[in-house]
Amino acid sequence: MSQRPDTLEHAPLGRESAYPEHYDAGLLYPIPRAANRAPLGIEEGKLPFVGEDEWHAFEVSWLNARGKPLVAVARFRLPADSPRLIESKSWKLYLNGFNQTRFDSRERVIETLERDLAQAAGATVSVELFDVDDAALAVCRLPGECLDELDIEIDDYSPSAEHLKVGEEIVEETLYSHLLKSNCPVTGQPDWGSVLIRYRGSRLDRESLLRYLIGYRQHQDFHEHCVEHIFTDLMAKAKPERLLVLARYVRRGGLDISPWRATPGERPPEPLRLARQ
C-alpha cells in the first residue's frame, strides 16, 4: 500500500477519478478513527462500546482462470476497534480493479480481499461472497416499534443531546426510525438511513428521541461516527444498563454500510437488510 497522509484532504472522495480495470491494493485509502472520536471523549484503547461496520458491495466481479466474468455480492465486517476506517470511494475504486483481473478460485478472491482490507484497517476484516440470488440477502424489516408517526414540531436540525428526555421507569425496548439523514463530510451529499435503538434502562421519551435523531439531518460526518455520536449521547444522558445503536444506511455507489455500537454482550439482530439497501 502506498505511503501517504491518511487525511480527507488527499482522499479520492469528491475528486474526479479514473476507474481502474486491474487489481491495485494501493487504491484503498485508510483514515484514522481517532480524530473524529476525540471530540466525543472517546480514547483509543478505551472504547466505551463494541461493534462493527458492516458493508455490502453489490458491484463485485472478477474473471476466472479462463477469462469468464463472475459476479457476487460481498459482505465485509470491519471491527469498531480497528485503528482506521476505509474511505468509501477508494473502496469502490479498489473493487473495480477486480473487474478485469483473473483469479484461480473464489477462495483466492476472498483471501485477497481479507489481506488488503486488513492491512488498510489495521485489524482483521471478515469477507463473505454471496451469489446474487442467495437467500441470505433477503430483505427484512427492523424489529421493535417505529417512531416515525409521532406528530412533533422541529426547528433545530443539529444533533444535540439536550433534546433527549428520560423518565424514571425502567424498561427494555427496541425503537427505530427511518428518518435518519446525515451528510458526507467531504462532498455534502445526503446519506439516508434507518436507525435502531435497543436498550434496558430509564425510559427514553419517544418524542424527544425522534427530535434528537432528526437533528442529524444537516450534520456532516461519516456513517460510523454518527452512530458513535448517538451511542455516546444516549449513554451520557440515559445511562442505560444495556444499549445497542444500529444504523442501516442506503446504498450509494454500489456500497451500503451498517455500523453498530453496543455495550459488551449486545449483538444486532441478524440477518438484516432493508428494502432501501
TrEMBL record:
Reaction(s) the record says it catalyses: 7-aminomethyl-7-carbaguanine + 2 NADP(+) = 7-cyano-7-carbaguanine + 2 NADPH + 3 H(+)
Q: Provide the E.C. number(s) assigned to this enzyme.
A: 1.7.1.13
The UniProt record lists the keyword Disulfide bond: no
Q: In which pathway does it act?
A: tRNA modification; tRNA-queuosine biosynthesis
Superkingdom is Bacteria
Location of this chain's protein in the cell: Cytoplasm
Q: Which GO terms describe its biological process?
A: tRNA queuosine(34) biosynthetic process
Kindly list the positions annotated as binding NADPH: 88-89, 252-253
Q: Show the GO cellular component annotation of the record.
A: cytoplasm
InterPro entries of this UniProt entry?
A: GTP-CH-I_C/QueF, NADPH_dep_7-cyano-7-deazaG_red, QueF, QueF_N, QueF_type2
Question: Sorted alphabetically, which keywords does the UniProt record give?
Answer: Cytoplasm, NADP, Oxidoreductase, Queuosine biosynthesis
Enzyme active site: 184, 191
Recorded GO molecular functions are: preQ1 synthase activity
Provide the binding site for substrate: 86-88, 223-224
Q: Which Pfam families match?
A: QueF, QueF_N
- What Gene3D superfamilies is this protein classified in? 3.30.1130.10
Q: Which residues form the NADPH-dependent 7-cyano-7-deazaguanine reductase N-terminal domain?
A: 19-129
So what family is this one in?
A: Belongs to the GTP cyclohydrolase I family. QueF type 2 subfamily.
| Subunit and interaction comment | Homodimer.
What job does this protein perform?
A: Catalyzes the NADPH-dependent reduction of 7-cyano-7-deazaguanine (preQ0) to 7-aminomethyl-7-deazaguanine (preQ1).
Q: What is this protein called?
A: NADPH-dependent 7-cyano-7-deazaguanine reductase
